[in-house]
Specification:
Blueprint (H helix, E strand, L loop, with lengths): L2 E7 L4 H5 L12 H16 L6 E5 L2 H11 L5 E3 L22 H5 L10 H16 L6 E6 L1 H8 L19 E7 L2 E9 L4 E2 L2
Parallel strand pairs: 1-4, 2-3, 2-4
Antiparallel strand pairs: 1-5, 5-6, 6-7
């Protein structure tokens, strides 16, 4: 039987606003981020989408987003859903990051951070474990841009360069899960209620 996973990026944070590298470190949602989460809540309500289970990264920006979207504090926080760790690059200005695929793949290892493969491995394992549970039919999981991209690259069917590098805050990745396989069905920007796939 086909199940549904709604994987989300958190709302805008102070570090997003200040254009700072934000992985393992955390910063609070801005007022805009709170409004983005409320729009995501409206999107799910308008489309009659109700969740039987809720998951969040252990980071405050993700759990705060989940609580706004779901209106619930009954959820599980998982370290495996955290953002990529950037090591000593945490908190630096984003313009200091190199451009291109290689920086995302392994650049942060030299600073004590994670590689994309490490993030893919933990995200993929966690999401499969979540969706393999019998009573998990319609699930919401709030994570992070880099973590979501890392996971999506494992199931992406088109050219790798077509996978957007920065999705809007509160972007919703709609995934079908059947026979231990994920399939990306859509990506919604709740600010516009439009597909960005």
């Amino acid at each position: 039987m086909k199940k549904k996973l709604f994987l989300m990026r958190h709302g805008e944070t102070l570090f997003n606003q200040l254009k700072k590298v934000q992985g393992a470190c955390d910063s609070p949602l801005t007022e805009k981020g709170i409004q983005q989460a409320r729009r995501a809540k409206d999107y799910f309500k308008e489309n009659n989408i109700a969740f039987d289970h809720l998951y969040s990264s252990t980071q405050e920006r993700a759990s705060d987003t989940l609580e706004i979207v779901s209106g619930s504090q009954n959820y599980q926080r998982l370290k495996a859903l955290k953002e990529m760790g950037f090591g000593s690059f945490e908190g630096e200005q984003q313009f200091l990051q190199p451009q291109g695929q290689e920086y995302f793949d392994s650049f942060y290892l030299q600073f004590g951070g994670e590689s994309m493969v490490q993030v893919q491995t933990r995200m993929t394992k966690a999401l499969h474990q979540i969706m393999e549970q019998d009573d998990h039919q319609t699930v919401l999981a709030v994570s992070h841009n880099g973590a979501c991209i890392s996971f999506l690259q494992t199931i992406w069917q088109k050219e790798k360069q077509d996978l957007v590098r920065a999705f809007p805050n509160c972007a919703i990745f709609t995934l079908a899960y059947e026979d231990q396989q994920f399939q990306l069905e859509d990506i919604i920007d709740p600010a516009t209620n439009l597909s960005i796939l």
